[in-house]
Design goal:
Layout lengths: L7 H8 L2 H6 L7 E2 L4 E8 L12 E4 L4 E7 L3 H6 L3 E5 L5 E2 L4 H4 L2 H4 L12 E6 L18 E6 L14 E4 H10 L11 H10 L9 E6 L11 H18 L3 E5 L1 E2 L10 H9 L5 E6 L9 E5 L6 E7 L6 E8 L3 E7 L5 E3 L6 E7 L2 E7 L8 E10 L7 E11 L4 E5 L11 E2 L18 E7 L4 E2 L17 E4 L3 E5 L3 E5 L2 H21 L9 H10 L26
Parallel strand pairs: 7-10, 7-11, 8-10, 11-13, 13-25, 25-27
Antiparallel strand pairs: 1-2, 2-4, 2-5, 3-4, 6-12, 8-9, 14-23, 15-22, 15-24, 16-21, 16-23, 17-18, 17-22, 19-20, 20-21, 25-26, 28-29
Helix pairs in contact: 7-10, 8-9
């Protein structure tokens, strides 16, 4: 029996065999085979800590969210608890890597009469860590600008209320800086160091802001974190900001493609609720899926069959495709393999269905609407019977049976995990925002090329499914010079590096309003409104807001 308190993907993962999970890129995320434990995101009301006696570990977040670590055999029991409203499994997050300050007019507000430097404001960096020994993060006296860092990947003493990682303080870093020896924590990829330097390094935007950093956990060799770690990290940095008593601008430079793209997942709704916690602004990049050919869409009408072709490159080890449609529409769905072999029509029934085409197993799951979304997901997982999927051109065939709305969207995983030739043959670049940039109350940041003054075509585009106006604005994301570990500097591209320009800009606005006493309420949606108001158009784009750069390019604000 399908448990409708569990999201569709979790139901499918629990019904899959161990072999199917192991070969799937997405089904096993959040599961530890050696302990048979699942890490789960839950929305709840009431007291759930009392259930720890069952061997369930709980990390309580604010506003009725929690991360549970649950033995697989107890998930059904957990779902039966009256306090539990809904349960999702974690998803993998991907870093958004594909002439900043001057292009954004930031330098003009860093000099008299405004002197905006981020003074009195915290910047929260949730990423791959930060090389705390880099000169960008040292004060003139050689002490650290990082007040706290939670390294989720280490074993040690975690912050109070959390179960993983090691917490370091400013005093720990200062002892390390003065005493030498091996580093307390590192940034292996360099991604977080680059992001932090743009937002609040000594040559960055809010260069007098202090930092609170979370190095997200590293559960697999490719160093991609999970949504469960992200939610705990946001909880931590906002709690620390409240404890210190200073406003905070938080930077999230990663995302994924799984979900309805309408802001309805528990991660997105959690970020929206945390926008009301203390004095904060959360900026999230749109991702780099704009030109990756990983999304396509169709508008169906009665009496007209449609085919959606896609290519699978040789040596592809896994693939999944999400199909999202209105629940009120009825569509027959058939899958045609490279050799013409057909699977389907798939039956619109709850629970998994299995088919085989060539040397590829097809796992199909029809979902139901959730309490947070009225759309229906059809999840299709392609699993190799041996090592690789059948390569060549595949096709979905759609036969309308009852059409009321007619919009159908298809998404592949992030381009980071696919071979470059695996893509839709006729892609749709709109609605390629990565999640959680589709959350309503965050500032959603696209990228443009500030040297050529043109839109960066890799930048994820809106609008959000359901009509939400995203992105909010764009910032420089091409050819950005920034810090790298071991005292180095690099040139980088991607919305990962556009986002911290807006994070830093938010810190400057909060300094103007809160630290300098001009507006004690200048945080949250008010910062977003000011940034939208101060954005300027890019040449060749005449309608605003638009799905590429929202209200325009980031030029701070016309302060009054």
């Amino acid at each position: 029996m399908v448990d409708q308190k569990l999201e569709n993907l979790l139901n499918l993962a629990l019904s899959a065999t161990p072999e199917e999970r192991a070969k799937s890129e997405i089904l096993e995320v959040g599961y530890a085979p050696e302990t048979q434990m699942w890490e789960l995101i839950v929305k709840y009301t009431g007291d759930i800590e009392k259930y720890e006696a069952f061997g369930i570990q709980a990390v309580l977040l604010h506003n009725g969210y929690a991360i549970l670590t649950v033995p697989e055999q107890l998930i059904e029991r957990v779902s039966e608890w009256p306090e539990i409203e809904y349960i999702e499994k974690p998803k993998r997050l991907y870093f958004q890597v594909a002439q900043g300050k001057r292009a954004s007019c930031i330098s003009l507000v860093q000099i008299p009469p405004l002197n905006l430097t981020g003074r009195g404001i915290l910047v929260g960096i949730i990423d791959s860590g930060v090389d705390y020994r880099h000169p960008e993060f040292l004060r003139p006296d050689g002490t650290s600008k990082i007040l706290y860092m939670w390294d989720q990947s280490q074993e040690g003493t975690p912050p109070e209320g959390y179960k993983i990682g090691q917490e370091f303080t400013e005093a720990d870093f200062n002892r390390s800086l003065s005493g030498g020896g091996p580093p307390l924590t590192t940034d292996i990829s360099g991604h977080g160091t680059a992001v932090a330097a743009i937002a609040a390094g000594n040559s960055g935007v809010a260069y007098e802001s202090d930092l609170i950093v979370v190095r997200l956990g590293v559960p697999r060799p490719e160093s991609f974190p999970k949504t469960t770690e992200l939610m705990q990290a946001v909880n931590y940095v906002l709690e620390k900001a409240l404890e210190i008593g200073r406003p905070i601008a938080v930077n999230l430079s990663f995302g994924n493609t799984y979900g309805s793209h309408g802001g309805s997942s528990l991660v997105e709704t959690y970020l929206d609720t945390m926008a009301d916690y203390w004095k904060n602004v959360i900026s999230v990049g749109t991702g780099n899926e704009g030109n990756a050919a990983g999304h396509t869409s169709e508008i169906l009408e009665m009496g007209v069959d449609r085919e959606v072709p896609f290519l699978v490159q040789a040596y592809e080890t896994s693939l999944n495709i999400q199909i999202w449609k209105s629940y009120v529409d009825d569509i027959l769905l058939e899958l045609i393999g490279p050799d013409g072999q057909r699977a389907g029509y798939f039956q619109p029934l709850l629970g998994p269905q299995r088919f085989t085409i060539g040397q590829t197993e097809i796992l199909i799951y029809y979902g139901e609407p959730s309490p947070y979304s009225y759309d229906q997901e059809i999840f299709v997982d392609f699993i190799p019977k041996v090592a690789y999927l059948d390569s060549g051109q595949w096709r979905f065939r759609l036969i309308p049976q009852r059409i009321v709305e007619g919009n159908v969207n298809f998404w592949m995983p992030s381009a980071n995990v696919l071979n470059p030739g695996t893509r839709f043959l006729h892609p749709t670049p709109d609605q390629t925002l990565t999640i959680p940039s589709t959350a309503e109350r965050v500032i959603t940041v696209g990228a443009y090329d500030s040297i050529r003054n043109v839109y960066a075509d890799f930048s994820g585009r809106g609008f959000a499914v359901g009509g939400g106006i995203k992105p909010d604005l764009a910032a420089p994301g091409v050819g950005i010079r920034t810090a790298a570990p071991n005292g180095q500097f690099v040139s980088v591209d991607g919305t990962s590096f556009a986002t911290p320009f807006v994070t830093g800009s938010s810190a400057l606005l909060m300094q103007y309003g809160i630290t300098d006493g001009n507006d004690p309420f200048l945080y949250g949606e008010k910062v977003k409104a000011y940034l939208r108001y101060g954005a300027r158009p890019l040449p060749g784009i005449t309608e605003y807001p638009n799905p590429r750069i929202g209200w325009g390019e980031d030029v701070i604000i016309r302060l009054h």
